[in-house]
Amino acid sequence: MPSEPWLDLFAKYASKTGFQLVPIPSLEGAPLLSTSARLWRAPYAQMLVLPIVQVAEHELRLSARIGQEWLDLASMAVEREDHKVMDAYLVLVLGENVPRQMLGAVRDIELDPTACRKHVVWPLPGNEADIVWRRFLRVTPVGLPYSPTAAGMTNTPVLASEFEQSLLDSVKNLQGRAAASLHAQRPAGSGS
Amino acid sequence: MIRLLSISIRAFRGVRDQIDLDLSAPITLICAANGSGKTSICEAAEWLLTGTVKRLEAIDRQKDIRCEFADVSIATQVSATIDLGKDRIELERTLNVDGSESVCRWRIGGDDRYRRVTSTSLLERLAPSAVENAVNTKHANSSRQIWLRGTRFLSGDALATLLDSDEESEKGRQRLFADLLGVGHLLETERQLRAYQTEIAQAVRRQQTRLDDKNVEIKSRMEAAAVRDRNRQRNWLNEAQRHLRLAREVLQSPDAADVSRTHASTVSDVSHLESLTNEQKAILEQRQSAEAQLIADWPERDSLQTLLASARKRFDELAQEETDRLEVERSQATKIIEARQQVNQAGALIARFGSAESSVVQAHAALLNSLPSYKQKTSTTSLSRIEASRLLNGELSASGSTDTATLRSLLGDLPTAIENLGVLDARKAAYENAIADAPSEEASAATREALIEASEHLASLTTDYGRIAEPLKQLHDLASAVASGFANEDCKCPVCAHDWQSKSGLMNALASASARVPLNVERLAQEMHSAQKEVQRLQDQSQREMQLFRRETAAARVYQSAEAAVSAFATRVRQAGFSAEVVKLRPEIERELARREILPSLMAYLTRLLEAEALCGQKAVDGDAVESMWESVKPGFHRAKRLCEKEFREAEGNVAELVASQAQSQQVRQKLEEERKELEQVIRQTARRTQSLESAWRRLAGEIAWSDAALANASRKLRADVSDMLDAERAIAQAKNALRELIATQELESLKKELEPLEQELARLTTYADSAAAIRLAYSAKRQAHAKQQMEDIVRAISALFTRMQANLVYDDVASGDKDTPLSWRAYAEELSLDPEATFSQGQRQDFALSIFLARARGLGGTFFLDEPVAHLDDLNRVALLDVFRAIAIEEPGKLSFVLTTANKPLVRHFVEKFQRVSPMVRGRMKPLRLVEIEGNPRAGLRLVVQE
């Protein structure tokens, strides 16, 4: 399978949370997966990614059913060993933008909690891969985009004059209205 | 970075006894029922780091920091081990037991003891800032507190402010998002500056209005002065003084020669001269009024005086005549009263005559009605006055004191009494015969005793016979039966066991006994029969004697009864005063009753007759029969009556004449009175006119005698004075005008001088307002720049977080938006770009806030407290958030830790499931999730159950 831009992006964010790309095991009784399918696995979850070549609703629903059944069997196989819950995620990747009439089917699939959490991903307008494939970032167990490190609190602005600093002190000392009342009452010529 | 590795809390809010919590795990999930101290743990961390609890600050209840159930000897204390990246510090904050003093201490790195630390030092360490050190410490601390709280703590309460849409919630929402973006302290300063600007702007407007008003007034005055002055500049003071001098001369003021030198003395002069003018003007007006009055009546002044004198003379005459007439009327009134008394007396006498005649006629008729019966019953042929008097006096009565009812009773009982008297002798004889037939007492007693004895003897015999006869008969029967049944050898008596030696002996004895029994019984029966006969005889005899006694008793009763009745009647007769025998008593009683019957009519007749005799003064002859006495008196009575009637009519005529005379006199007097009143009116009017004339003359001309020449002089003098007065008034008015101009000129100068301080004050206030605007602008710019930078830095992280919590796929993306909006975010759904403020649902706003908090937390690092952060999420999105927490915990282990609280047990279970396969973290091989369950309550104390 040729390397896809989304594949690299997905690998980047999935690996941040401990997922590793693993060969797809054969499971007895499980439906056959296409060769373009990929499986990422972490100690606590596994994530099956199924690219869909034809952007059509029936293809989408069929892939969702196949992926759901496969993940169900795969998760049960793991859970049988230590009786701990193994999370499962199905990611259906469409090659192009989804037409409006398919959005209902997308929503049905994503809201269906049977066996695993499901996500449908397709490219959106943009230049960078992060932008084009930002729907990948909706996949809940993968890592998040970078948040810049903040060293301390946001500085207050440096004021232009001592008068302004003094005025600000008055406002903060007395609260706004009270400070204004005081300044308004001060007789002329007595300074600030 | 501020990473709390552990925290200890005691006597704080809902935590009574000390609890120690290890917060080193990436996720510390605190689970407890509501009201069990979850929020207190978050607030303890807030208090430790910032020195306040915002939730209590809002309601001004910082004193509620202390746990009310804590032991009074234990101070409130929160302490923590904090990793600040470069340093590790042990920090503790203590509040004494009465809540009055809070002390914060720390131990840095390897220090062996705690040292007191100020809020400033602590906050500088926890919230480092390059600029804050240069500003007011108090304000820098406040900013740091806001920043710390906003970036480290997110509560369900704060998220709840996103649910409402009112204006206050709108502000709260802005504050929350500002806090989340780390610019809450800037927004708070802006808020205060906005309030300041609003208030100071009003002051500026007020000052500007004052200044404008003053300018308008000056302009107006200058324009008015220009018009009046007609481009001529005068010395208004000199002009005023010149006019005043003229006025003084006219008014002949004693200080006419004085000249005012100053403005004040000139004003005083004006006032003085105005007063003087007013006084003189009043006098002039009086003189003018007097002149006008005089001119009207001047030609008639002599005739008025003549008329007044003659009218007064006539008035006095009329008054005297009226008095005389009144005296005559009084005398007539007395006579009328006396004449009316005579009429009344005569009338009363006539009435008495009428009444007396009517009474005597009526009594006479009644007497004539009853007299024949009396005469018949008393066998009287005639009743004279003397006899009548005696009769009335009771001299002819045999039973004067006995009442008539008794007499009638006696008369009624008289036949019975006569009958009783007639049978009394026969009853007496019957009684005496009964006495003679009755046995003596002794004989009767002997019979009764003999009967008793015989009865007792018979009873005794009967008893004996009854006791003996039946047993003897039984014995006889038994002996016969025994004898026939005995055996040969028996020789003993079966009754008494007497041994008769042989059976024959026994049988003989039995036969002998049987033979004697009938003889004894028969003898006893004969004795009893004789006794019965004797008793019967004695009983008959006693019965006969009793009948004789009863007959004697009855005869005695009849006789005694008749005797008693006769005796009683005789007693009643005697008591009634009669002495005649019973058989002759009837006529006596009937005469007495006849006398009594005639007494009332006789009494009435004689009484009325006496009255009639007294009235007419004539008396009947005593020897005449009473029934004819009225006839003998009647002619004289009628004569006297007619005479009386004549006197009555004469008296009435006299009264009528007197009344008519009096009425005539009153009419004359009324005419006199009317004439006098008319004259009085004339006198009053004439006198008033005369007095008015005289008064007016005195006001105009004084005390000189009036004449036509004098009047002409006075009028000329008055007109001259009036002319002078007008001159003086004009001069004063001109002086006042000059003074007004002077004052206006001075006031204008004064107003011009007042402008300067007003302008200075306006400038001062404007400086404040402009400076406040500049400061606010600087803060706003800083806030927006920082927010924008934040957005640019973390928008992708926020977008990823937000969309993961939006399973329903409404929004595809979130990105930075309009820089002027408070949030500066845009949400994208397909090709639509939406304003979150306008389009986000309440739940989405909370998701969005949570996304910002988490995105910033990833950048800041350290420990973050989320109190009930997922209550608003639906099931699917809540699971997504758990995935997010797991992802954040895994992707950068050791950098971030979250303290989450919840009361939701299923959520806890879900958390555990999500984390049970996650490998231990690198630092100390710690588990990624530490579950702390709190049991108990603030009153009873808390207990922590920790699971890893």
Low-confidence runs of chain B? none
Compute the average pLDDT of chain B.
84
Largest sheet of chain B: 6 strands, antiparallel
Give the distance, in angstroms, between the N- and C-terminal Cα atoms of chain A. 77 Å
- Counted beta strands of chain B: 15
Characterize the structure shown.
The complex is a heterodimer of chains A (192) and B (948). In chain A, strand 4, helix 3 and strand 5 (117-121) form a beta-alpha-beta unit. In chain A, 39% of the residues lie in helices and 15% in strands. Chain A is of the alpha/beta class and 192 residues long. Chain A has a five-stranded mixed beta sheet. Chain A is built from six helices and five strands; from the N terminus they run H-E-E-E-H-E-H-E-H-H-H. With 948 residues, chain B is of the alpha/beta class. In chain B, 69% of the residues lie in helices and 9% in strands. In chain B, the strands form three sheets. A six-stranded antiparallel beta sheet of chain B has the order 2-1-4-5-6-7, covered by helices on one side. Chain B has a six-stranded mixed beta sheet with strand order 8-12-13-3-14-15, with helices on both faces. In chain B, strands 9-10-11 form a three-stranded antiparallel beta sheet. Chain B is flat. Chains A and B meet through helix 3, helix 5 and helix 6 of A and helix 4, helix 7, helix 17, helix 19 and helix 20 of B.
